[in-house]
Write a structure and sequence with these properties.
The complex is a heterodimer of chains A (82) and B (188). With 82 residues, chain A is of the alpha+beta class. In chain A, 29% of the residues lie in helices and 16% in strands. In chain A, strands 1-2 form a two-stranded antiparallel ribbon. The chains are: A alpha+beta (82), B mainly alpha (188).
Chain lengths: 82, 188
Amino acid sequence: MDTLDLGQRFAALEEKLGVEDYNYEHFRTKHYVLDVQGTLKARGIKPGELAPDWDLSDAMGGSLRLSALRGTPVLLHFGSIT
Amino acid sequence: MRFVDVAIRQAHPGPKARLYTSFEQKMLDAVVYKREEGIPWTVLVDDLAGTVHQVYGGMADPTYLIDSDGRVAYYNMWTHAPTLHTAIEALVGQGGRGVVRRGVDRRPHMAAAMTDGWRGLRRGLPQSLVDIEIAGPTTGTGAWLGYQLRPLLAPLTLRSEPLPTPVKVGLTAVLAVIVLRSARRRAG
């Protein structure tokens, strides 16, 4: 899996959500259930695996590529404003 | 150690925090998020489909530690600052490379969310509260109550470092006494 780029990894995901399901209008019990299932399966990138590279826009302007940070450890948090 | 935050979807939408239908909307919220929360580190914005978020597991509030070689050293599935503090120390102790603390922490660390999560939830009021109460009764009101008790709870629940061992032992002993007394009362 290490050689796949982000798009390929996304396409290969078994449990991915489409744009409309991902951006839901109402938080529901099923979203709790998805989190419980994800926790039990440790869904995500496994320890020791190469973290898939990304190139994302910075809220303060410009962009940042993960691979540009190689050589220094990175703490990567995902969070929502709500 | 470089700290990076990735802004994801609207977790608890509401009238003033609508679900995202454009990347620009998401970017504007990320700017607000960085400013209002006083985040000193980089805040990045995922695309509308949540491509990066979903590839990294799509969990509600995860944190990864990525080592100097770009490999996952640690995966805190439910972000917990004291646990991360220990993992960061371990990673630094290993020269910034390799898996630390067995690699994954799956424990649902909810105490911080129940103390401070109201700050996020209130941006989507009233719908965010109604929805979360329907999805999991008492979780929204519990978050509100936790926020009211923040001055009392914060020293325990919003710590950035683990509790000292004597405090942990003391708290465990107090809990054990409460549980034993309660069990005796039921039995007697």
